[in-house]
């Protein structure tokens, strides 16, 4: 873009990228208001994963949920949240807000998840110190492990963990890509142009 005289410097490119992230954030927030951001159901497994903020160079935790269709390897829809703590009072309300009642939830054995069966979820756990696929239930966390690694790589590659605000924007951008961008008939670029046109109407 600098060679084509669209941007004069890397600082200009950074400002442009910031504005585009704002466009994507506004679109995701509008989607949440209008139709919600629900995952799970009869045909999906939901995987939960949290990671300490130190991994992201911040004090907050990133808590992620991933809805994956059974017997399919299609791209999953992530829900990514920044949380102060990872206790039951912090994580369970997020799960109840984003995951349909009756869904199959697979996670590690973190004690914060123990109340999920009482809320109407079918909760299965995997003991990572012993195996990644439970030999009795068949529950496995390989989907969320791969997705989590990919999400971290995307944020790290774009240096999106430098500040809490920047991290929040990049997590929202990942959600926009999977929930909206890849669903558009012309792909993420087509969806981005559509959202820019809606944001900056003449």
UniProtKB/TrEMBL annotation:
Residues 38-179 form the ISXO2-like transposase domain. It holds the Pfam family DDE_Tnp_IS1595. It comes from the Eukaryota. SMART domains: DDE_Tnp_IS1595 (SM01126). This is ISXO2-like transposase domain-containing protein. It comes from Merluccius polli (Benguela hake). The lineage of its organism: Eukaryota, Metazoa, Chordata, Craniata, Vertebrata.
């Amino acid at each position: 873009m600098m060679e084509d005289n669209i941007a004069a410097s890397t600082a200009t490119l950074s400002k442009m990228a910031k504005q585009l992230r704002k466009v994507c954030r506004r679109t995701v927030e509008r989607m949440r208001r209008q139709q919600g951001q629900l995952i799970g159901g009869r045909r999906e497994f939901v995987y939960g994963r949290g990671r300490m903020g130190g991994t992201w160079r911040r004090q907050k935790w990133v808590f992620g949920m991933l809805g994956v269709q059974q017997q399919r390897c299609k791209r999953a829809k992530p829900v990514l949240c920044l949380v102060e703590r990872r206790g039951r009072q912090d994580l369970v309300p997020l799960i109840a807000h984003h995951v349909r009642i009756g869904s199959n939830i697979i996670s590690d054995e973190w004690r914060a998840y123990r109340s999920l069966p009482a809320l109407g979820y079918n909760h299965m756990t995997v003991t990572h110190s012993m195996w990644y696929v439970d030999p009795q239930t068949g529950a496995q966390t390989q989907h969320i492990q791969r997705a989590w690694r990919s999400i971290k790589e995307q944020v790290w590659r774009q240096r999106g963990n430098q500040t809490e605000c920047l991290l929040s924007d990049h997590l929202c951008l990942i959600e926009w890509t999977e929930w909206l961008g890849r669903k558009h008939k012309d792909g993420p670029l087509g969806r981005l142009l559509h959202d820019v046109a809606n944001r900056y109407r003449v």
